[in-house]
């Protein structure tokens, strides 16, 4: 398999963490989707990473689709429960974490791609409200549990860890570790895993 991605994308990081946890071999091809000469559209018509090229050359797109597929390839470190209710709960955690990232990415793009005089303060505020509401919801749902779903490390933790890491990377002014000590404890624990150490955004 070959993964097309970047070193900064939290969605690519999520896939890389899962690949590492599942101990799956793959080639990694760096691609900057913002470069004029990007070729990502040849594999993903949406022009986005991550994109997983499977052994037969078929592309698979969207991080949520990719990680769910990867979890089926080996019983090593199962990240998604087989039961429908528990599985849906883990996927809801992932959707919440990804939603926080979607909003934060929109704010970053507004700041970096638009001249200051064209930026919409109302749009930025709307997206940042989603980020802060999402962080508060993650903290409330985590409570004092060791992991998002209790005692077991799952895809929920991977998704939340990647979201927290990217916000810390791109929005250091958001002091979520101070506001949500339980999320800070979870992130510190996740950061000790080799899969997270090897995929720090840059």
Automatic annotation (TrEMBL):
Keywords annotated in UniProt: Transferase
Alphabetized GO MF terms: glutathione transferase activity; maleylacetoacetate isomerase activity
Segments crossing the lipid bilayer: none
Residue intervals of the GST N-terminal domain: 1-78
GO biological process: glutathione metabolic process; L-phenylalanine catabolic process
Pfam family, one: GST_N_3
Residue ranges occupied by any GST C-terminal domain in the UniProt entry: 83-202
InterPro entries associated with the record: Glutathione-S-Trfase_C-like, Glutathione-S-Trfase_C_sf, Glutathione_S-Trfase, Glutathione_S-Trfase_N, Thioredoxin-like_sf
UniProt keyword Transferase, yes or no: yes
Identification of the protein by name: Glutathione S-transferase
Species: Massilia glaciei
Species classification: Bacteria, Pseudomonadati, Pseudomonadota, Betaproteobacteria, Burkholderiales
